Amino acid sequence: MNEMLDAALTVASAPNPAPIVPDGMSGPVNQIIGWGKWIVMALGVIGLLFCAGQMIMGRKNRHQMAADGATGIPWVIGGVSLIALSAPLVDAFI
């Protein structure tokens, strides 16, 4: 019975070939991905500077502004971490 089930599952499974880069596309695609990573990393630095500015400006009599700046830091770090881990995450699922 198990042999029949294994044979049925083997026949029913879809092919899963390895990804192949088309000729001449490796360089341009890597360049575009590199540009995207650079832009997002620069936005991450700007985001952290913005959070720091909110905390500095909210120090005196604007406590909610300081709190908003402090709560923005984990979001910025999370976004930058996701960008840094994007390629390994995609590799893990393929």
Automatic annotation (TrEMBL):
<keyword id="KW-0472">Membrane</keyword>
<keyword id="KW-0812">Transmembrane</keyword>
<keyword id="KW-1133">Transmembrane helix</keyword>
<keyword id="KW-0614">Plasmid</keyword>
<feature type="transmembrane region" description="Helical">
    <location>
        <begin position="35"/>
        <end position="57"/>
    </location>
</feature>
<protein>
    <recommendedName>
        <fullName>Conjugal transfer protein TrbC</fullName>
    </recommendedName>
</protein>
<feature type="transmembrane region" description="Helical">
    <location>
        <begin position="69"/>
        <end position="90"/>
    </location>
</feature>
